[in-house]
Amino acid sequence: MEAKRTSSAEAQGPRVRGAEALLKRLEWTVIRRLDGLLQGDYRTLFRGAGLDLADLREYQHHDDVRHIDWNVTARLQQPYVRQFTEDRELTAWFLVDLSASVDFGSDDVTKRTVAREFVGVLARLLTRHGNRVGALLYGTEVDTVLPAGNGRLHVLNLLQRMGARPEQSAAGATNLRDLLVAAQGIVKRRSSIFVISDFISAPGWEKALAQLAMRHEVTAVRLLDPLEMELPDIGLVTMRDAESGEQLVVDTHDRGFRERFAAAAERRESALLEGLARAGVDTLELATDDDLMNSILRFADLRKQRSRLANWSGKAGRASVGAHLSSWSGAPA
User: Fold this and answer.
1) What is the pTM of this model?
2) Lower CB count within 10 Å: N or C terminus of the chain?
């Protein structure tokens, strides 16, 4: 009698089967559609770190200071940076905050779910083009490091590790700085880094994020839920701090309370966006009620706009370099 065949996913248990089902769903509903829509925009969404010198241009805010050409800078009395030919292949790292606050969701979808789906889509898009992805997972500390690898099985392993983690209820305050500092020691080669978090954290992470962005191309992927910004009028509600466990009963019928809540949320929002801007990173917002594919396409549009701006600035800078060097050397312009 012929033995029944079992797939590797079935043999490894429900968590792996769950990761397989999730990835299949994302491949059918998101990844295939993105492949058709992005097409030639792939390189504007994921940029490599090439080594071939292509040109020179004037230094701009957020440029990597390691690329400053000091000889040209000394001649022209203003900083210029080298531009390099970008490689198609790259290494990407996902720094994923899985602390207690990301288990919140006002509807059926939590911020953790959104984070897992985003990682699945980006990781699969990257590995399908021959790139490598790695991950650092943070709960109350950085407790999981998945070295960079490629292939579908590697993505499944990453999704399984994210899905297998228990909720961190009342586990204490998040310190996002620990995750960012750990990444500085682990990710040695220049990479594309996605910091995926709701950024509900103890203060002090901004400097560590800026330091990470000086060496790598960093994108802050902010997870949020609409209920964190504005409360509906639904009467008495018990609110619970996911990280401390503290509970408080509030009356959402009270218009003044709702207005104070919205004002406090707006202040937190402004402070967060200012911190991300100071760190010099791109920001992609993923809400629990938003469409993941549309969010990624908005991010791709942002990258295209920045790429056009960089190309325009580069052309202007090259013309300026040519004129300055011709004048300095005595050659005709």
Assistant:
1) 0.73
2) N
